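Illustration: PGG domain-containing protein.
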Amino acid sequence: MAASTDKVEFGTGAAAAAAPKQEPSWEYHLRKYLMLLATLVATATYAAGLSPPGGVWQESGRDGEGRSHEAGDPVLYHSARYLAFFYFNATAFAASLVVNLLLLVLNERRTAWLAVLRFVMVLDLLGLMGAFATGSCEDLPTTVYVSTLVVALAAYVGIHILLATYAPSEAGQTSPSQVVVREKERPDDALKLKEQRKVLLLLATFATGISYAAGLNPPGGFLGETEGRHEAGDPMLKVHQLARLMAFFYCNATAFVASLLIIVLLLGRRLQRYYADLQMYGFILVVLLGLLGAYAAGSSRKADTTAYVVVLVAAVLVYILLVMVVMVLVPDPLKSSGSWLRLKSISARASHWLQERGCHQNQTESQSSSPARELLATSGGGWQGSLADEVNTGNKNEGIEKAKSLILLLATLAATITYQAGMDPPGGVWQEADEQGRYKAGDPILLFKHAARYKAFFYCNSTAFVASLVVILMVQNKSLMSGHVLEVAMILDLFGLIGAYAAGSCREVSTSIYVVALAGAVLVYVVIHVVFFTLDNEDLSNEEKRRIDKRRKRLLLLAILVATITYQAGLTPPGGFWTKDGPKYSAGSPVLEDHDEYRRRYLAFFYFNSTSFMASMALIVMLVNPNLYRPGIRCYALYVCMVVALFGLMGAYAAGCARQLRTSIYVFVLVGAVVAFIVVQLLVFFKFFESCATPDGENGSSSGSSAAAGSSSKANTPSSSSRPRRGSSPKPRPSTEATSRRRKYLMLLAILAASVTYQAGLKPPGGVSERWATAGNSLLRRSDLARFRAFFYCNSTSFVASVVVIVLLLQESLQDHALLLYAMNTAIVLDLLGLLGAYAAGSSREWDTSGYVIALAAAVLAYVGIHLVLWMLGGRRGRGRVASVPQQLLPAVPKDTRRCSSSPC
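Result:
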């Protein structure tokens, strides 16, 4: 999209006359966002397949029509609606994995797989729409509404494909006068248009994922038994609060379809500027209003709490306005006061005392010895930019800025899954209070049945959650990123996730040991593979490092999101948990594990899922250290780990989403198709590799090499070097680029915070009541009203603050307003503090565990306070300290690298 549009709008006359085949495809320009989109679709469809709409039977017996069923079977299993949902959802899941595999090896010079990629992406989109339509509707009006929206969107996609296929080429439609007008546009216009499209795509992706999950699993859960005129599998809110359920459904469905429409429009090659500026923001407004309406209707059951959510929108806007007013009225008097000067003097003396005792390492030594600094210094590690841009701009902080997005994505997704795991703990919750007073309704079952295991899970999960928030805050300060503290926080985060998974996903010590041993086995394999297959010790060229860093970026993004999927699925397995003790099972144990017929299926799911999770976690650990990932990528050891993680994901889906052979066959056929696709791709790759390894290919005697050499020699002439390259982005001003990065980080944080709080608000901690009189109401509200209110208000504040920040960041006229950006930055801090408060209130039920979370929250608050004081005392000294390091200018990238054009990049 970006490439083809830029070709018309920003190309020069010379560029328009160049050969079209040299222009990289729009898929290549948007590969990171397409991978994020495909992986989040895989996340949503994976979770929906394991937790199908309608819920699962809690006990064996017969339904209202006399058909027998076993505990753990989907309630809607025998209906045509469920079968249609199953096939659509499985198709979308498999197509998402294929898209990810294609994007991993996508090259700007390779066009052989583009047709396959586009076909699979369309198939993925159609499967997702079909699964939502069949899984979210249970009566005629809702079915007609969603079907109409889906058919309209499908018709638009078909018309769009026909227009793109039969329309004349863009180059032939562009008149010389249009080219002259576009040449006069400011260089910053190109950057702003690209950033707007990327931000809109990111926002639409987030909205698609959460609205899909919420539509298939509405708030309040599902009826477990047929009651009167309501059948098993109907939403519980349908019993007593039908109007609230309908309001949630229509708002959520509208947001889902509108977000899909935005994605289709943004991925169109012939998107015009007015189309993006005028209609896009109208669709985005529909999406955000739909999500706000769905959250207000689904997160509460009373009118006063619903009104609170609506009023919050205005409250957050007033808060941001007040921050801007304070910044304008009180900027300098504090710095000229005597107290300020005394504090600054104390800070300077403390810094000098630490330096004398060796607490501050020499900048050069730590720069060479710290793996985090090597990570930050690598090029191509961010959302955008290249090695040539880094050399040309001469920006001394370029490496740090590029690494922020990777670290930020890792921390935000870790915070997302740990927050959800704290709200919905493994083992489930008690549906009724104990007659002897040992537990209350909504308390975690695992805390009563396996106290030591639950506490191990709770402390590891909470540590990972707080460490993630600390990393998010540290990324915003460059001086903190340059030391070893960031490395410690990241490793603590990752090992906290591993410990929480090992403790919460199983009930026996032997299986916990197996889970931890898996991560060690992956690390040992990579080391052995690197030792035996990386025999040369030659130094890598800058071009080779750039290509390796590109591959690292894609692998890391995919590994992070696979870990997200498998972590949640491992803690809340398919079939759910027993909520009562029985003769052959215990409360808190997985239903499928204790069932004789499904035990082998559950074990297959557990081992596949655990293998995928541990392989992805080991990949993340290795990919953040250049000393490990560079040789690992060169010898394809990390690619093997990624393939193992994806195969484990497919195996877990096949074992966990179906209960009978006839539905399992379809999934195994899809898995076989993906395997065949990988084999064909490898055969094609090795065939091209062998052709490039021939003497003629090495000497560049082919016509393609000759053309490349000719263009390289022309590029070295003064006339050609003065013109911008075709397809390259205009170089933005440093201030514009810094503002763009800041907006991107704020947008990413706001999107993921809104995602996690939206889901937690619709599915509150403690679960919901299944009793007829109080069906759909929160159990925690009945057993501990003060704790529930604390969670609700903190969670709602965080959600609405995130949505308001998103809306403000989308305003083009306010993009470069420094005061507004600073105010929104403080709003994000408020957002994270609300997230902390909601986690502390919702993840525990007793003071001994709440005290730990409150202490962690206090530590984070103290850190934020110290961070702000040091920042103000030092006059943003951190930025100067990083900038004071002499820049080691990198040599220019050679024009002809004599690299096989079919090799993955």
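Reading the tokens back as a structure: Strands lie at 61-62, 68-69.
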